[in-house]
Amino acid sequence: MSTSVDLLVRGSAKIIAHYRWLLQRARDNGERAAYERRIVEEERLVQRLLQSMPGTIQS
């Protein structure tokens, strides 16, 4: 992977971890749902980025 893609993937992993931390501390169902949506979206974007890279192995 290129350095910029590595940076984006690591950044997304940190964002996902932070959303999971916030999800554990959510005060109501609305907040929980919002964090869950953001986690799913961020994971989708990472997968899309990795799939767009030529020569990458998909798990």
Automatic annotation (TrEMBL):
Protein name: Transposase
Organism domain of life: Bacteria
